[in-house]
Design brief:
mainly alpha
């Protein structure tokens, strides 16, 4: 095609115009690459949002998780007989009272 265009005397102008619209690797016009880039950004943001919402530890609940784990450990120690009733109740009250401080 290049040789035929040059033989007809049209010069390189039509070929340059075609290559300018070809985009990266000459597959699609530039506006298609713009749309694909925007789509990748949107899908990336959507993936990050879904990951954040599905995680079991959102940033505001990290303290709640630690408190829940501490209460579970306290319950386990009381059930095993490692601590007495009075100590269990006092420690549980201390753990639950941290919300008020």
């Amino acid at each position: 095609m290049v040789a035929a265009t040059l033989r007809r005397g049209l010069g390189l102008a039509p070929l340059l115009a075609l290559s300018a619209c070809a985009g990266p690797a000459g597959l699609f016009p530039p506006h298609v690459w713009d749309l694909l880039g925007g789509l990748v950004v949107i899908l990336g943001l959507l993936a990050v949002g879904l990951w954040w919402m599905s995680s079991d530890q959102p940033l505001s609940r990290r303290g709640d998780r630690r408190r829940r784990l501490a209460l579970e450990e306290l319950d386990r120690r009381y059930a095993a007989g490692d601590i007495g009733r009075e100590e269990y109740l006092q420690r549980k009250l201390d753990l639950l009272d941290t919300d008020l401080r």
